[in-house]
Write a structure and sequence with these properties.
Blueprint lengths: L1 E8 L4 H12 L4 E7 L4 E6 L4 H10 L3 E4 L3
Length: 70
Amino acid sequence: MESIQFFVRGMNCNRCKKNVENNLSRLPDIQNVKVELDKDLVTMTGNDIDLQKVKYVVESIGYRYEEIQK
Protein backbone atom coordinates (compact mmCIF):
# COMPACT_ATOMS: atom_id res chain seq x y z
CA MET A 1 0.00 0.00 0.00
CA GLU A 2 1.28 3.48 -0.85
CA SER A 3 0.60 6.84 0.73
CA ILE A 4 0.60 10.13 -1.17
CA GLN A 5 0.10 13.73 -0.15
CA PHE A 6 -0.86 16.76 -2.22
CA PHE A 7 -2.54 20.13 -1.82
CA VAL A 8 -6.10 20.97 -2.85
CA ARG A 9 -6.54 24.71 -3.16
CA GLY A 10 -9.90 26.44 -2.93
CA MET A 11 -11.45 24.61 0.03
CA ASN A 12 -12.77 26.91 2.73
CA CYS A 13 -15.28 24.97 4.84
CA ASN A 14 -16.13 21.53 6.17
CA ARG A 15 -18.54 20.99 3.29
CA CYS A 16 -15.63 21.47 0.86
CA LYS A 17 -13.56 19.03 2.91
CA LYS A 18 -16.28 16.36 2.81
CA ASN A 19 -16.84 16.94 -0.92
CA VAL A 20 -13.17 16.25 -1.66
CA GLU A 21 -12.99 13.26 0.69
CA ASN A 22 -16.17 11.67 -0.67
CA ASN A 23 -15.26 12.09 -4.33
CA LEU A 24 -11.68 10.88 -3.97
CA SER A 25 -12.73 7.88 -1.89
CA ARG A 26 -14.78 6.64 -4.88
CA LEU A 27 -11.63 6.06 -6.92
CA PRO A 28 -10.61 2.41 -7.35
CA ASP A 29 -8.09 0.99 -4.89
CA ILE A 30 -8.27 3.98 -2.51
CA GLN A 31 -8.35 2.82 1.10
CA ASN A 32 -8.40 6.13 2.99
CA VAL A 33 -8.64 9.86 2.26
CA LYS A 34 -7.95 12.50 4.89
CA VAL A 35 -8.21 16.26 4.30
CA GLU A 36 -6.56 18.75 6.66
CA LEU A 37 -8.60 21.83 5.80
CA ASP A 38 -6.36 24.30 7.63
CA LYS A 39 -3.34 23.20 5.56
CA ASP A 40 -5.15 22.39 2.26
CA LEU A 41 -3.43 19.01 2.60
CA VAL A 42 -4.82 15.69 1.40
CA THR A 43 -3.33 12.34 2.42
CA MET A 44 -4.46 9.24 0.52
CA THR A 45 -3.56 5.60 0.96
CA GLY A 46 -4.22 2.83 -1.50
CA ASN A 47 -2.79 0.60 -4.17
CA ASP A 48 -1.70 1.77 -7.63
CA ILE A 49 -3.00 5.33 -7.15
CA ASP A 50 -3.42 7.06 -10.52
CA LEU A 51 -2.48 10.71 -9.93
CA GLN A 52 -4.00 11.80 -13.24
CA LYS A 53 -7.38 10.48 -12.10
CA VAL A 54 -6.92 12.13 -8.70
CA LYS A 55 -6.18 15.47 -10.38
CA TYR A 56 -9.16 15.07 -12.71
CA VAL A 57 -11.54 14.37 -9.81
CA VAL A 58 -10.26 17.33 -7.77
CA GLU A 59 -10.54 19.74 -10.70
CA SER A 60 -13.91 18.39 -11.88
CA ILE A 61 -15.47 19.36 -8.53
CA GLY A 62 -14.07 22.88 -8.68
CA TYR A 63 -10.79 22.82 -6.76
CA ARG A 64 -7.14 23.07 -7.78
CA TYR A 65 -4.77 20.09 -7.45
CA GLU A 66 -1.20 20.99 -6.53
CA GLU A 67 1.71 18.61 -6.06
CA ILE A 68 3.97 19.00 -3.04
CA GLN A 69 7.36 20.22 -4.20
CA LYS A 70 10.17 18.11 -2.80
